[in-house]
Amino acid sequence: MRGLLRSANANERSAKRFSPDRVFNYTSLLLSKEDNMLYVGARETLFALNITDISRTQLHRNVSMSVCFILEDRKREECSFKGKDLQTDCFNYIKILLRVNSTHLYVCGTYAFSPICAYINTSDFSLVRNEMGEIVVEDGRGRCPFNPEYKSTAIMADGELYAGTVSNFQGNEPIIYKSLGQGTALKTENSLNWLQDPAFVGSAYIQESLPKGNIVGDDDKIYFFFSEAGKEFDFFDNTIVSRIARVCKGDKGGERVLQKKWTTFLKAQLLCSLPDDGFPFNIIQDMFVLTPSKEAWKSTVFYGVFTSQWYKGASGSSAVCAFTMDQVEEAFNGRYREVNRETQQWYTYNHPVPEPRPGACITNTARAQGISSSLHMPDKVLNFVKDHFLMDSMIRSQPLLLKRNVRYTQLAVHRVQALHKTYDVLFIGTDDGRIHKAINVKDKMYIIEELVIFPEPQSVQHIELDDEKGLLFVSSYSGLVEIPLANCSNYQSCGECVLSRDPYCAWTGKQCSNIKHAPTKRLLNFKQPLLQSSVSHDTSEIFIILIWYAGNISYYYQY
């Protein structure tokens, strides 16, 4: 980096904060466009905030989970007696906060290492009670972790909950579990070691049955993203690998084999590595699944942030990699791996596989064979998938962005229509409370803005993006911050506006403005020369990195 550094006062980047006294660990965010609310789960408490302004106290409501769930001293004492820290572990940390339907939310908390779940009526933001006036509570095991530090994920699809977590107090029984709804509850088979000490970072529901009436007749799928011990690698140290796993939404388990277990569970390795020496960033920290529309699911891009368990040059480096749906489908349609039970070594399975294809969803091909449900699958198919759940092919990618001495924790992606082209803009959180705003241009990533979100260094725990209102919500241990996706007026001149390379911004002839707020007929006169523009070669790679903190901005001109 070389060039000029200039500082200026700024009041335009209007951050709004929500941080009430004695509330900590803002671990769950749910953006609800249906009722214009942001639901927030923290330690012992739930909040309903108006998206318009999260800082206005008269616009928020809260539910105390400790009072309503009656977290008595007895429960905390039991937690402490089992060896957990009374001051940190033995509280109710909200880990799941999802919308069940148009009227209710589903919430789960660790509840002093005894997880429970409940329903919330969104009309008055109250916990649902039965005829006796008692709060309706469900066992949270298999849905919510016991330990608040454990990484887990959950997603709701048509009223059914799909969770990746652990199912016991010790934390050594990982599970991918489907519950709620009218269908059969399904889970992974723990005795078959389908999961190896996973750390779940995300999940996604992709409607691959669309468009309706298509020739394949495939099923919708639920994807899970996690890192785990890579038992297929015969190394001295415990090698960690990143995974993508999938199950079919219509899976009902097997009739005789794999009863009440997944019959479609498959997993593959995600490899984000350097092109020159293959150095791997093998630990996935977060994944954002960008799907243009429900029916355009084949154009899905999986953006992930990765770190490495090894050091190279500088510790704490991070990478951003992207994977396409074509890559994912190719891996899951490829060869399987098999383990030798005596040597515990894995190898490629090169023999014929039974039909229909093991681990595949029910398609028109299977229906033509008289198989309309996983309950009708032949035993030989289910016995095969029990032991051949790992795909042979790695899903490979090279870093679009590599940052040394930075540890990325979270990300959100927004596909932006600029004046002449569409760009993917990434908002990436760090472990010290910053947000990097980066733009993907021709498979190269450029950081165009750095925001210091929290006054004290602390890890970004969650990012939620409202593309309609142009807002970003960022949570941490101490609070929640709302910021606009762009503040074009911070750029005071045509040069600054152009060199920012911000796809949200364009020069009107008088000022730098957000193109989303401009009348369509005026856009023809706007200037927005991004990398595809006709600017001279000497300046086409010049960027302004805007660093914003506490009302001041600094511009770094980067060549």
Automatic annotation (TrEMBL):
PANTHER family, alphabetized: SEMAPHORIN, SEMAPHORIN-4B
One Gene Ontology term of the molecular function aspect: chemorepellent activity
Homology family: Belongs to the semaphorin family.
Keyword Transmembrane helix assigned: yes
GO CC annotation terms, alphabetical: plasma membrane
Domain Sema: 1-485
GO terms (BP aspect): axon guidance; neural crest cell migration; positive regulation of cell migration; semaphorin-plexin signaling pathway
Keyword Signal: yes
Organism: Cyprinus carpio (Common carp)
Topological relation to the membrane, as annotated: Single-pass type I membrane protein
Listed name of the protein: Sema domain-containing protein
Coiled-coil region(s): none
Keyword line: Developmental protein, Differentiation, Disulfide bond, Glycoprotein, Immunoglobulin domain, Membrane, Neurogenesis, Phosphoprotein, Signal, Transmembrane, Transmembrane helix
PROSITE patterns (UniProt xref): SEMA
InterPro entries: Plexin_repeat, PSI, Semap_dom, Semap_dom_sf, Semaphorin, WD40/YVTN_repeat-like_dom_sf
Chief localisation class: membrane
Gene3D superfamilies linked to this entry: ligand-binding face of the semaphorins, domain 2, YVTN repeat-like/Quinoprotein amine dehydrogenase
Lineage: Eukaryota, Metazoa, Chordata, Craniata, Vertebrata
Pfam families: PSI (PF01437), Sema (PF01403)
Compartments where located: Membrane
